[in-house]
Amino acid sequence: MNSFTIAIDGPAASGKGTLARRLADYYHLRLLDTGLTYRAVGHALLTHGLPLDNESAAETAARQVDLSNLDKHTLSAHAVADAASRVAVFPQVRKILVDKQRAFAAQPGGAVLDGRDIGTVVCPNADVKLYVTASAEVRAGRRLRDIESRGGHAELAEILADIVLRDARDTDRADSPLRPAADAHLLDTSEMSIEAAFLAAKSIIDVVMAKRSTA
Ligand code: DC
User: What's the number of domains the chain is made of?
Assistant: First the structure.
């Protein structure tokens, strides 16, 4: 198989990142968590003490984003996630980052990309598009368990409020809002384990791969 692109979209804490990693490992594809690119822009503004509505500073930061140097640990902070969803509304920031994401996807060998607009904007010709979702309550519960498993503490109600706010920002923005592509396979993981979600995705992908190899 020359090149195979898997596009995974979905709201915050839907499990799309974990699924993307499992699929990339299983199919030996390169992986890009595009959320990290928006987080890198938000992080740059926070680090320089710049307001998050400073569009030209956000554009400059977007140009400087280096896909080979995205530090997941530094970018995982809650304040960075919030900043990312604010700078993600700027069309110029999106254009700059989408160009970099497309260049990543176009490299030989194929790739898995996860985000909010992969199937709709970044890779509209992806071989497989998955839209991973779960109820806000389930996503909040997963995030709480994740925080607690790393020794942290948080309030479920606060996490839920944050998820609802971020969903609204991602879904309501004018440029490339979060929505499933018309040809995306919907995967509601509210009542699915990670393993079950992986197996469901794998069976969709295997069918497409088999068709491709006999075409
Ligand atoms: O997936 P994440 O939580 O790391 O994403 C952080 C923010 O980045 C998210 O709230 C919206 C933005 N984002 C986006 O607008 N488009 C993408 N493809 C990925 C993320």
Answer: 1
What does the pLDDT look like over 98-140, one tens digit per residue?
Answer: 999 999 999 999 999 999 999 999 999 999 999 999 999 999 9
Q: Are 12 and 82 in contact (CB under 8 A)?
A: no
Which of 38, 90, 96 has most ligand 1 atoms within 8 Å of CB, for mutation? 38
Q: Is any atom of ligand 1 closer than 6 Å to the C-beta of 10?
A: no
DSSP 8-class letter at 32 = E
pTM score over 0.70: yes
Q: What is the CATH number of the domain that holds 204?
A: 3.40.50.300
Q: Where are the alpha helices (DSSP H) in 71-155?
A: 78-87, 91-106, 136-149
Domain range for 196? 5-214
The closest-lying atom of ligand 1 relative to the alpha carbon of residue 12 is 3
